[in-house]
Automatic annotation (TrEMBL):
It is an enzyme of class 3 (hydrolase). It catalyses: 2-phosphoglycolate + H2O = glycolate + phosphate. The lineage of its organism: Bacteria, Pseudomonadati, Pseudomonadota, Alphaproteobacteria, Hyphomicrobiales. Belongs to the HAD-like hydrolase superfamily. CbbY/CbbZ/Gph/YieH family. This is phosphoglycolate phosphatase. It comes from Aureimonas altamirensis. Coiled coil: none annotated.
Amino acid sequence: MTATAYSALIFDLDGTLIDSAPDIARAVNACFAARGWPELEVAYVESYIGNGPRRLIADILVDRGLPSDPETVDAAMKGYLDAYSQDPAGRCRLFDHVREDLAALHGAGIRLGICTNKPHELTARILDLLHLARYFDVALGADAVPACKPDPGHLLAVAEAMQLEPGTYAYVGDTRVDQATAQAAGIPFFVVPWGTGPGVEVPAQNRLSRLADLIAPTAIAAQ
């Protein structure tokens, strides 16, 4: 099946549809400042995004040589999420053409979903704040499923909630975690050209230039 033949698409969120790194870094730094820990650059924090909030905090603490026992990680994660929830989309932006391409995909009759390691409630709030919620049938955050990405059950849970048949949909992301999730689920994977996408190795036909690449030519002609 080619990229233009799917009746549904499931997307990652951070780094795929939205550049949320500045908001995430702001929240991490607010958490760190409250504990007397050093401020971090956005690009540094961005390199740890993709495995959910606990791994984000734990991996940074280990890398910086800061206390990383479970109790400290749990407390720091709570501080991070509290700071993040205060203003979850204040510095966020959509990547190039994402809004218009989501509208075009939706208008072409392609059903859309989200599978993200961001907490579920924050995911819903951000989609609302960015006026994107209208395009998605289902969006499941990490804490809405028993095990999150790279566990394939997370992606398959989105597909099940959307009542999708195998072979009718693909997953779109920007990280090796996204790629591994799709592979484990037996789902075709496409990578975006932004975020960490350029560093993910895929066949040329699975590398997008923009989301509109996933619209069938016949659907475009019918609009």
